[in-house]
Structures are given as structure tokens and as C-alpha cells.
Write a structure and sequence with these properties.
single chain, mainly beta, two-stranded antiparallel ribbon, about 0% helix, globular
Length: about 70
């Protein structure tokens, strides 16, 4: 759960083993997922941190390199 009360999901790997850069949040009032801007890098295995002024993706792996 984010600082603002939304549930966020992003990145990961799909069924085709492609790394994802998508980011979405669940809007409880509208009972639906909302697409957000994509991350700069496709990645998996990272931390997603919600702060009052934004959401930050830290670390992970892009499939070819480690993202610091």
C-alpha cells in the first residue's frame, strides 16, 4: 500500500519471459486498476517505495544487467 492509499504494482516478468516496465495502481474508490507512466527500465527483483512526493523503483535486474 502506498503512502497515498493506493496499491501499486510494477515491473516483473510476463509469460513470454519478457521483462516489464509497466506501472499501475489500484483505485479503491473506482474499484479498478489505472495505468501510470512506465519506468525508465524494464526490471524484476527490485524495491518499490512510496513517498509523499513520488514512487521510486530501486535496484533490480533488466535481464541483461543489474540496475543500481
Amino acid at each position: 500500500m502506498g503512502y497515498d492509499g493506493y496499491l501499486y504494482i510494477s515491473g516483473g516478468v510476463n509469460n513470454n519471459k519478457s521483462y516489464l516496465n509497466s506501472c499501475e495502481r489500484f483505485n479503491w474508490n473506482k474499484n479498478r486498476w489505472e495505468n501510470l507512466s512506465n519506468m525508465n527500465y524494464s526490471r524484476r527483483g527490485f524495491s518499490l517505495i512510496s513517498m509523499p512526493h513520488g514512487i521510486y523503483a530501486i535496484g533490480g535486474h533488466s535481464g541483461t544487467k543489474v540496475i543500481a
